[in-house]
Backbone:
């Protein structure tokens, strides 16, 4: 019955100490194995939150979270198709424009998102120019909605409209789908709020040439396992959010033979290769669709405190928690620290934006920073800081991945499953890797960087558990 | 025989898979082991080396093929399970990659330190339950040094711990010694036959120190926190501790030291001791009639008596009670000299304690002698100091009590409050004797004697200028092995004119003799 006490007497103490360091030091002096915890008051000392947190330290919650972790690990996202948004997204039509992050009204949208929405209205032929587009949107005839409400995600502004081709990724383990549009490249692009003729021309080419050709190739392939590409990309120095060099290369390698087997004209194939090879982030959107399909598999697991969504609309960051259904818990978006293209600075940057944080939710991106020493400049310059970022994330995830591994950590699995409880307990919030958009519409990307997710939404989510 | 297992849809680095293949080959002694991703070139290779079976032929580029070739067919399953463990249960080590991480939670520390069996908590009281509950859930024993933990929290934690088979020592558990290791405030005591369960921190310290002084070692000393033996908590931890000591092979004799428990707990405890049937000595720090010895259980009135009985059980020579260890002449002379330093006005004893049980013990002795002694720790409501910061007549103050430690370090760690109080007391015209405990050991201040000696010296100089003096008597609770060096600490105090007694009870008795000018009976 009291086997643990008896073992203590038999083996002597082996201690984890918290509080006054002197007691831990005294034990170490005696040769007792002792680890001291760098303790901070959970929930910043708020008694109401602590009492909710205590109530969540139960076997039920543990069970729910293990189930959630199992599903995240055993998800198998497979690229099965590409198709225009209106054809494949649930509840999607010509007059609907989707955006990143939690839902937000036109009036409250940030500059780059407004720019992208107007660009999309013109792109869809609903207006002839940006001015008309603005009037149309202001008239309320365009339905604006969150990508997440349609099983989709979009990087940065995340603006997605009916004609845009989507990656269709099926999580074959749990029969759900995730969607994401195709990546346009870097610099002046719609997702960063740029919307001039050049941007729209590229989007049209993607719709008429790139999308249909890839669709045929994917159909010929019988489906492409994206999880395996991500696993390999992590071993190639990507973290699959801010660096997608290996992933893009792997995808190109896999798709090439099928693409060549389609009836796509040689000149188009050449353009497609040029386009993908010229965009080191091409894989990002595909990876995001996979992460979405993976993360959604835990949605609705009763009692689970694990996040299945974290997304920003440039004004607010919103999170959703497996055991709390559809509800969004929001806080003002943070400001990234980062590196800027020449001529720009932090003063120009828009608050944190985009759905790409679905990556961290699914166990890649910032949590896997240790795998990507090539991008350490974003985190302050040293490889050890990349390692520290990953190590820190293990303290707020419920577990680690089985298949996404980090070679420099002896193939340890990446941190997986942000646990609301641990976030509130430690005050450590998820690290986010991100691109940085100019705060004005129409300019586009000005840099890339990193930030810690703001705390407010997590607090609200914990309070919601208290009401349950 | 050749067998192929397939792990569907999983990618692993080829070098990692080769390592694992080699590991299995040497561990299980199979002739052929090959673990590869099922790409076309890999399958060609496996075909050539004759390890590809039909299942392997059917595998795709995203599948892992595991091939074993051996006549030890019975080990196939075990080897495959072992391989899966290697692949799946790759443990997260937070110090991997050579980065120094600080642990933010018990769980993250436990991840690296998975043989941890005890969580030691000295956090502010209101935060204790949350952390302790998590430790209990993880199957760890908990020692809660903190006070200011609510009774409700204590009961909830102890009930949960009992269910889980772990012990929650505390809250307000200052002392434990487990297999020779000191936790919290505890002394360096040789290992030996006596196992101690105590609802009293300094009680355990004095008991272990006095035993060590007589060459008797201790197997373990488990603290429970004073409130454990109350009716509300019901002695959960004490009973758990007794059971564990009963089952512990290194424990030959059990000693219990406790503030007076409620009757219900006394009954349960005695029943448990009887069942365990190892010889046991019980000391409740309580005045009044002793319970009669029965079965394997003997009762002691004071810690000194308890030590004496334990000595008798171990060495055989019958224990004879005495008031002082020193000869009568020595004590008489010391009393005489001390009284001579006092004037008519100086009548009262002021005890400034850092150890609660030691304070209780002194209170018992002073009450018996004078009948009217004030204290913040008094068991008698009509003799409780209204304001613990103001002494009157004979007063004994437990400065380790909650009201002194809220937001302040314990008086064994930090001497600021005790020094201030000492200065205040010796400047009172009617104060004759200061009674002190000086507790050494791990956790305590590294030079407590030095701290006290300094103010005693300067205050004495001031007093002498005014044509008066005072007496300071102390008990140093320390063992030869303590990090502060017992002999040095004693010398520092003696050099400052402090009279040292070999036990707390004797120090209290000595003060009675001095304050009573030899006319009071002990």
Residues:
């Amino acid at each position: 019955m009291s086997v643990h006490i008896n073992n203590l007497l038999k083996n002597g103490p082996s201690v984890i100490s918290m509080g006054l360091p002197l007691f831990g030091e005294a034990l170490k002096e005696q040769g007792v194995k002792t680890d001291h915890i760098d303790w901070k008051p959970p929930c910043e000392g708020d008694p109401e939150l602590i009492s909710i947190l205590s109530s969540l330290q139960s076997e039920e919650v543990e069970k729910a979270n293990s189930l959630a972790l199992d599903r995240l690990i055993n998800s198998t996202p497979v690229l099965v198709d590409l198709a225009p948004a209106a054809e494949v997204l649930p509840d999607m039509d010509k007059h609907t424009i989707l955006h990143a992050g939690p839902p937000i009204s036109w009036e409250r949208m940030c500059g780059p998102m407004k720019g992208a929405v107007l660009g999309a209205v013109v792109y869809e032929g609903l207006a002839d120019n940006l001015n008309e587009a603005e009037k149309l949107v202001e008239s309320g005839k365009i339905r604006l909605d969150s990508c997440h409400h349609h099983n989709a995600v979009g990087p940065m502004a995340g603006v997605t409209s009916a004609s845009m081709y989507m990656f269709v990724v099926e999580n074959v383990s749990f029969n759900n789908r995730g969607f994401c549009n195709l990546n346009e490249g870097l610099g002046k692009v719609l997702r960063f709020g740029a919307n001039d003729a050049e941007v729209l021309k590229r989007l049209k080419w993607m719709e008429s040439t790139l999308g249909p050709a890839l669709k045929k190739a994917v159909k010929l392939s019988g489906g492409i396992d994206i999880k395996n590409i991500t696993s390999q990309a992590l071993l190639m120095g990507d973290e699959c959010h801010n660096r997608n060099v290996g992933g893009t290369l792997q995808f190109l390698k896999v798709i090439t033979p099928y693409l060549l087997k389609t009836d796509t004209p040689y000149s188009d194939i050449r353009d497609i290769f040029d386009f993908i090879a010229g965009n080191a982030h091409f894989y990002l959107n595909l990876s995001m669709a996979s992460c979405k399909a993976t993360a959604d598999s835990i949605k609705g697991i009763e009692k689970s405190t694990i996040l299945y969504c974290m997304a920003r609309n440039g004004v607010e960051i919103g999170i959703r928690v497996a055991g709390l259904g559809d509800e969004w818990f929001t806080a003002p978006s943070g400001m990234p620290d980062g590196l800027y293209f020449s001529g720009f600075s932090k003063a120009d940057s828009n608050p944190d934006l985009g759905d790409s944080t679905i990556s961290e939710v699914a166990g890649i991106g910032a949590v896997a920073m240790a795998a990507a020493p090539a991008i350490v400049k974003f985190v302050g310059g040293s490889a050890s800081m990349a390692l520290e970022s990953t190590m820190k994330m293990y303290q707020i995830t419920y577990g680690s991945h089985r298949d996404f591994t980090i070679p420099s950590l002896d193939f340890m699995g990446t941190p997986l499953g942000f646990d609301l409880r641990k976030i509130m307990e430690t005050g450590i919030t998820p690290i986010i890797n991100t691109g940085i958009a100019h705060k004005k519409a129409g300019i586009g990307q000005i840099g890339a960087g990193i930030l810690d997710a703001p705390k407010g939404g997590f607090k609200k989510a914990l309070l919601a558990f208290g009401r349950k | 025989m050749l067998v192929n297992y397939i792990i569907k849809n999983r990618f692993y680095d080829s070098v990692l898979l080769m390592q694992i293949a080699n590991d299995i080959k040497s561990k299980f002694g199979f002739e052929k082991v090959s673990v590869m991703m099922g790409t076309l070139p890999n399958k060609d290779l496996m075909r050539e080396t004759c390890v590809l079976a039909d299942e392997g032929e059917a595998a795709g580029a995203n599948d892992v093929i595991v091939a074993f070739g051996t006549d030890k067919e019975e080990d196939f399953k075990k080897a495959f399970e072992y391989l899966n463990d290697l692949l799946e249960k790759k443990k997260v080590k937070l110090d991997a990659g050579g980065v120094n991480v600080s642990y933010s939670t018990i769980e993250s520390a436990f991840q690296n330190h998975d043989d941890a069996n005890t969580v030691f908590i000295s956090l502010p009281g209101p935060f204790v339950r949350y952390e302790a509950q998590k430790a209990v859930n993880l199957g760890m024993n908990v020692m809660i040094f903190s006070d200011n933990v609510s009774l409700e929290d204590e009961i909830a934690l102890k009930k949960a711990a009992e269910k889980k088979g772990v012990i929650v020592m505390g809250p307000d558990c200052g002392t434990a010694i487990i297999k020779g290791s000191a936790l919290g405030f505890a002394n360096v005591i040789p290992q030996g036959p006596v196992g101690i369960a105590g609802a009293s921190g300094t009680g355990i310290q004095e008991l272990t120190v006095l035993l060590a002084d007589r060459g008797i070692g201790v197997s373990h000393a488990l603290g429970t926190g004073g409130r454990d033996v109350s009716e509300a908590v019901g002695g959960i931890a004490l009973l758990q501790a007794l059971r564990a000591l009963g089952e512990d092979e290194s424990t030959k004799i059990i000693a219990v030291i406790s503030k007076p428990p409620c009757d219900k707990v006394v009954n349960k405890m005695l029943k448990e001791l009887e069942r365990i049937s190892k010889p046991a000595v019980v000391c409740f720090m309580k005045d009044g009639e002793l319970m009669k010895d029965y079965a394997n259980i003997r009762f002691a009135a004071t810690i000194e008596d308890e030590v004496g009985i334990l000595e008798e059980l171990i060495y055989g020579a019958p224990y004879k009670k005495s008031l002082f260890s020193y000869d009568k002449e020595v004590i008489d002379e010391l009393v005489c000299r001390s009284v001579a330093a006092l004037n008519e006005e100086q009548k009262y004893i002021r005890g400034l304690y850092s150890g609660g049980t030691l304070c209780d013990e002194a209170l018992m002795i002073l009450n018996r002698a004078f009948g009217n002694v004030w204290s913040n720790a008094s068991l008698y409501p009509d003799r409780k100091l209204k304001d613990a910061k103001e002494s009157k007549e004979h007063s004994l103050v437990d400065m380790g009590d909650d009201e002194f430690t809220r937001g302040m370090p314990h008086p064994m760690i930090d001497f600021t409050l005790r020094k201030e109080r000492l200065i205040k007391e010796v400047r009172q015209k009617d104060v004759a004797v200061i009674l002190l405990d000086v507790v050494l050991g791990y956790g305590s201040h590294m030079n407590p004697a030095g701290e006290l000696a300094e103010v005693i010296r300067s205050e004495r100089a001031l007093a002498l200028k005014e044509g008066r003096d005072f007496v300071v008597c102390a008990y140093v609770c320390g063992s030869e092995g303590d990090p502060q060096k017992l002999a040095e600490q004693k010398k520092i105090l003696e050099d400052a004119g402090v009279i040292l007694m070999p036990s707390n009870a004797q120090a209290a008795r000595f003060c009675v003799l001095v304050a009573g000018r030899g006319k009071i009976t002990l």
